[in-house]
Amino acid sequence: MFTSEAPDYLRGSCLCGGIRYRMQKPVRYACHCYCTMCRKQHGAAAGSYAVLPSANVVFERGAELVTEYASSEQGRRGFCSVCGSTLFWRSTQTPQTIAITLGTLDQVYDGPVEQELHTDTKPAWLPLHSPE
């Protein structure tokens, strides 16, 4: 049995709190995706994700509020039908893997971001480094 403080889990939720999930570590890798679809869905310079096995993600509350949108033949995007929070992206070719949005985590993700995807469409206005 786990507790909310269990180090083997990360917990997250949508903006309205209707959906709550937990994901079992380890995260395979974290990434920023600069593709046009991720930027439009997130309304930001990138979509930021923790990628892990789908079996390691459990919706503890509000699974009925999760809506999926087929953004392409290759991918589906999950979001809250009440508040619109972007929750995940998953490939139709590799359904055993899911990419959970880092922004919906309830605690700070302290792992590294190892990959940047679709850097050819990375916005020019995005700074490379934080000012010192």
Give the key terms:
single chain; 132 residues; mainly beta; 3-stranded antiparallel sheet; 1 helix; 10 strands
What does this structure look like?
The chain has 132 residues and is mainly β. Helix content is 5%, strand content 39%. It has 1 helix and 10 strands, in the order E-E-E-H-E-E-E-E-E-E-E. It has one helix spanning 36-42, and strands at 9-13, 20-24, 29-33, 47-53, 57-61, 66-70, 75-80, 86-91, 97-101, 115-117. Strands 6-7-8-9-4-3-10 form a 7-stranded mixed sheet. Strands 1-2-5 form a 3-stranded antiparallel sheet, with no helix packed on it. A hairpin with a 4-residue loop joins strand 6 (66-70) and strand 7. The chain is globular. The model has no long low-confidence stretch (mean pLDDT 91).
